[in-house]
Amino acid sequence: MKVLILTMTAGEGHNSIARALSKQFDETGIENKIYDIYSSNRRKFIINSKGYLLCYKFIPHIYSAIWTCCKKKNYKNTNRGSFLNELKPLAEANRQVIEEYAPDAIVCTTNYASALVCYLKNKQQISNKIKLFSILTDFLPHPFWEYSRLCDYILSPDMYSYGALIDKGFCPEGFEKDTAKIVPVGFPINEKFLRPKTDKTELRQKLGIQDKFTIMLMGGGFGIGKNAKLVKHLLKHKLDIQIISVGSKNAKNVTKVNKVIKRYKAQNVVNYGFVDDIVDVMDASDCVVSRGGCSTLNEAIARQLPIITRENLRINEKENALYLEELGISIKMKHFRSLHKIIEDLQNHPDKLERMRKNCASFAPKDSTQKICDFIIEHSK
Fold this sequence. Notes:
alpha/beta, Rossmann fold
């Protein structure tokens, strides 16, 4: 059996999911390949990946307005429009990849990829024998998910997305309808986030940091979050805490945090760039301040790490944050100046922090990556 995993670089979430699935397939002995749908066009790849981040960062209100408008589109109107025109130039290059690899199943970690393979399926340019699966990478579907209705299965994190997906024309598994079936199988994450937890004091000693109440600041895979602003705010309020800032691949953010540390002569701030073993850093922390990307959130939940979601989240992140707040897993930071008050409240009420940890434990993805891969294998025969 062969599985082709289609991804797209728009942040690191989709690629992270693709790698987690690939690793699980490797361990199961299933041949697989990861392919970015924009790989054939370097210019388009750069515009897509960097353009997405620039829009996300500098024109969030326009980004959110377009998102909202597109999300309200009637799911039946999938035969025309700019999105379909965007898919056409990609179709031929991706058709060749699919033809050459000849997979038994295609797994998409973004609805752009599943819309693309559905376009090819509709045009009868790929074999009908190939089973098509698409992973819902947020707790609610993005705009344009209606273009993925020719997939065989939509694999969702849980039942929360059902109503929104049904509104897009999908149906629950077991119903006889000529459209993709929704199956709740959990959210795929790397198996390293599922390993047993290590004692905090022991980990802090291993990392060479102080053994005290620790806040972790994360900015996502590309370090979009402005950690320096948060570090400066917390240092001004002189809280009895330790701050771990993770800048990921954003060297500028790391440099800015270093300048803040130097200015305040801070002894309680640890500044990392890209971290090889982020699990150790998570386990050494008492809570994390994060953006609302589903991959990062689920990784924190798997480590039973209470979450404070950032201010100025984009619309899909807001949807994720609202859901987790309802579950008692996260706290929404409305403005960065409120962060010190949230932290003080958690320090003064350890029972609240413990409840959030327990809620994380009950919601944690556990063995969902294996379940997803097992489901794909079973339903591709």
